[in-house]
Amino acid sequence: MAEMMYWEAIRRAHDEEMARDPMVICLGEDIGVAGGTYKATKGLYEKYGPLRVIDTPISENGFTGLAIGASFIGVRPIVEIMSVNFAWLAMDQIFNTAAKVRYMSGGQLAAPIVIRSPGGTAHQLGAQHSARMEKVFMGVAGIRVVTPSNPRQAYGLLKSAVRCDDPVFINEHELMYNMKGEVPDQEYFHPLEGSEIARSGTDVTLFGYNISVHWCLKAAEILDKQYGISAEVVDLYALSPLDREGIRRSVAKTHRAVIAEEDEGPVGVGAEIMAIINEECFFDLDAPPVRVHSANVPQPYNHKLEQAAIPDHEDVVNAVLKLFGKS
Amino acid sequence: MKLEDKKRVLREMVLARRFEERCYQAYMERKIGGFLHLYPGQEACCIGVMEAARPGYDYVITGYRDHIHAIKCGADPKEVMAELYGKETGSSKGRGGSMHIFDVKHRFMGGYALVGGPFPLAAGLGKGIQMKGGDEIAICFLGDAANNQGTFHETMNMVALYKLPVLFVCENNHYGIGTAIDRSTAVVDQYKRVCGYGIESAQCDGQDVEVVYEHARRAVDYVRSRKGPYFLELITYRYRGHSMSDSRSYRSREEEEMWKKRDPIFILRDRLIEAGALTQEEFHKLEKEIDDYIENEVVRFAEESPEPDVRDLEKYVLADRETQLPWLTGKVA
């Protein structure tokens, strides 16, 4: 098994799927001649040409709609939206068309497109380049939401998403493109539904997805070494539909839960998981579940304020200690 | 247009008119719900353009005033009416309603209810055609008010840039909901608005179906021969309000009467009578035949069809689970 970076894994999935099926195309701003802002499409323009690797104007609603229309008649587009903040501009096409067209046509038409986009706080990008949108996507019927936390998932999720007949939103992270990890040498399809136990434990479950899985893993290590608390880390790579059964199973085992997300707290992913735990695991709980999330502010530019706005592994550790009455 | 084609086109326009008027009646009887946007007055637009294109072969997409476009592409009027009644036999199985008629087997790719929304989708159909390499074209019918959406400009830029085979047909009926075009739009001649993108365009009378046909023939040939996209503006008028909840208080009855003197059906009818190809009696007979057909077959079918089963409420949200299992589970054989 070779190690590769997150962006290389995404690039490999693009390449394999485009080589397999001439109807797979990719489009977005700067993805062709410029090679992609995060290099996820590097070299594909030279290999597949301008008809299949399409540099688009900076008009998100327009090119996302173009991809949707093309998908109606057999094209399999992978749309890169350079930053998830710009996906707000494409909301009409994503939510009013892609997510609804199968239903409102009585099953006659579907929009099997993939939308990939990085979100999250990187290095002082300010309010309009640091948003997270996964909670918005997961609240809408008709579109799947997945979010890879490592190169293996980034590769396998894109492969599965391209072949799935539903629209799929892949939530990546600004800070993860250079992350290294093992990716199987042979072709690999990561499931679009379910969750993974990233670390097994018995005393508390830490739920994370995308970058927050890494806070949870680091927190679990600290909890184990310094406090003798055994934490299980559940990686919720699929946010819609959510793996209710996986959530239930882990809480039934550990009886405590902490949910970590980078997004603002209100109406978030954590709120939804909290609701599931409340509905389905109430009598398994030894303590009320806790959420760890960003402050409810637009991301500030100032570095100190920015870091104060978002959580990290220490916040997860503190949340667990609070659960155990140790803080 | 040959004589027999003119007679068929007249028949199609009468069917379009009577179908829509019957919808009006069914709405007043509360048989049809939701919003209902009717087409009387504009018949020559869709029918004239599609007469020059290949219905059922070329891809067609439009906004919410979509019943007649679907029928002209080949949709069965019975299924369209059943859709308006919300029935399982409807063209979108009762899930779409008036604003979301779909008939994909006849390449009618849908009516969409967000103003300007279909522009980029039409570009996408053009992209799909470009990749598949056939000689189909994509035709996008939208009203004048849609041209003030950002999607109009985003799309015109892209179709010109990528040379996509899309014909845009602007049915300029002078009103965006209840606001007159000169009160919402800086340039009222819509065909001029695409010049900045280097797109060929023309404007013509949208009340005379033969004029529409001649202009559309040139436009369709242009797009089909892969010279690029084309924008055709048709000057027309809708007799009824924007939708059924519109009392038309924003315009005068004199204005409406003036347009009714240039009724698309009467223009063609009078021309055929003048040429000795039709008599007044034959025309009345035609109207009667169509009314009987709509009443006895179309409306009856809609009335007698079953409602969707409530147990199927969540059907069609996502693709069929069984066929998607390899991607949902990652277990690919």
TrEMBL record, chain A:
Its cofactor is thiamine diphosphate. Residues 4-179 form the Transketolase-like pyrimidine-binding domain. NCBIfam families: PRK09212.1. This is Alpha-ketoacid dehydrogenase subunit beta. InterPro entries: THDP-binding, Transketo_C/PFOR_II, Transketolase-like_Pyr-bd, Transketolase_C. Transmembrane segments: none annotated. The keyword Oxidoreductase applies. It is an enzyme of class 1 (oxidoreductase). Keywords: Oxidoreductase, Thiamine pyrophosphate. It comes from Thiobacter aerophilum. It holds the Pfam family Transket_pyr.
UniProtKB/TrEMBL annotation, chain B:
Its EC number is 1.2.4.1. SUPFAM superfamilies: Thiamin diphosphate-binding fold (THDP-binding). Its cofactor is thiamine diphosphate. It is an enzyme of class 1 (oxidoreductase). It catalyses: N(6)-[(R)-lipoyl]-L-lysyl-[protein] + pyruvate + H(+) = N(6)-[(R)-S(8)-acetyldihydrolipoyl]-L-lysyl-[protein] + CO2. Keywords: Oxidoreductase, Pyruvate, Thiamine pyrophosphate. It comes from the Bacteria. The pyruvate dehydrogenase complex catalyzes the overall conversion of pyruvate to acetyl-CoA and CO(2). Residues 12-310 form the Dehydrogenase E1 component domain. This is Pyruvate dehydrogenase E1 component subunit alpha. It comes from Thiobacter aerophilum. Heterodimer of an alpha and a beta chain.
